[in-house]
Amino acid sequence: MSERPRPLVIAANWKMHKTAEDVGPFFQAFDREAPAPAGGIEVAFFPPFPLLSVVVGAVAHRADASTGGQDCHWEDEGPWTGEVSAPMIAATGAERVLIGHSERRLHFGETDERCRRKLRAALAAGLSPMLCVGETLEERDAGRARSVVLSQLSKAIDDLARAEYRRLSIAYEPVWAIGTGRTASPEDAQEMHEAIRGALASLATPELAAEIAVLYGGSVKPGNAADLLARPDVDGALVGGASLAPADFASILRAAHERPG
Ligand code: 13P
Predict the structure, then answer these.
(1) Residue 188 to residue 138: CA distance in whole angstroms
(2) Domain 8-16+42-257 adopts which CATH fold?
(3) Residues flanking ligand 1, CB < 6 Å
(4) Considering the entire predicted model, what is its pTM?
């Protein structure tokens, strides 16, 4: 295996699915099916907030696994009914948080400015943020996919410290591919991931850009994971629907373990 400067990350975004009683059976099945941990490959779980502590406990025995929140507020505490802050997530033992998922941008008014503030709150709380970026179908059809994605990126992560860039990961999720069964072709994904890495090199440095994992998300399944993961700048997958079934998610993780080179 050649030396990769960044990990491969296979991540489960459970969205608004599952309750505490589902967690035990999920991990019993996942542990049976999943490959044993190996260097350079990480698996991450983003369950709904009420399940964070349960999942933290359920993955504690896996050296390759981490847990994260699906969102956080930009303030540490205050009169924000219904919200959850980055320090609250960190206090559960979780290490990660998603920032700017397209469902939050679309349904909950998440702006680039909010993503920027949330990302900084996450870093200040010691979490590793995974920034989600992606264009809509209209934007892609208008030839604006790249400019939209790179603008979301630069608005959220310019001027971070070196050590902060090292805790960052990016998920490229074209909105038209989420939950639709339509996947970006491996070529389209590679092209955008390469553009993202180029932008990261300008925002940070080429060395730091080479260390940042850029995941693909949008209808990733056992049947298409290997092709996507074979592309040099596709450093993993952020999986929605197929992460709810332990055998499917384990199979996607296996594709990362079997990735050539
Ligand atoms: P699907 O895998 O269900 O398309 O969801 C992708 C996603 O939004 C992951 O964050």
Answers:
(1) 16
(2) TIM Barrel (3.20.20)
(3) 13, 101, 173, 178-179, 217-220, 238-242
(4) 0.97
